[in-house]
Amino acid sequence: MNNDRTVRLTVNAMLAALCACLGYISLDLGNLKITFESLPVLMAGLMFGPAGGAAVGGIGTLIYQVLRYGITATTPLWMLPYILMGIAAGVYAKKSFFSNTNRQILVITVICEVLVFVINTGVILADSLIYGYYSAPYVFGSLGIRFIICIVKSAAFGAVLPGILKKMARITHNGLRDI
Fold it and tell me: Is the pTM here over 0.85, yes or no?
């Protein structure tokens, strides 16, 4: 039992670090950000439930935000999409007793990526209003390309996650072995 807790803590710490690194090396073009930081958050939620997903999303994004931008009034807002993503993926996995099919993993990945897309749009709006750089074209002008990126990431993550989770199940001892 104690060994399982140590494994969970270790894997979550590694996933949070990976989330921070992937966020830091993202491609930023104004309000268009191409990043893979959500992959470790999805993994944590699907392996360890809502608490693990929220922890990885929160800690990983906090580290990235502090390293890249420092602490600002909107830092918690930028963390929120990934915390909620981890919770959503974790609740979904927990309801199915951590034995999701490939199709279920794809569905939750799409749902979570769209959730992040919607919340990030709100955060861009809030950040622009708080710091006084609001313009409708800046906030809403890239919605189409951001949504396309969201869907492509969902498909890619949905394709690779089952294999990764199956391998990780050997370490974490959860039900994903039988995918």
Answer: yes
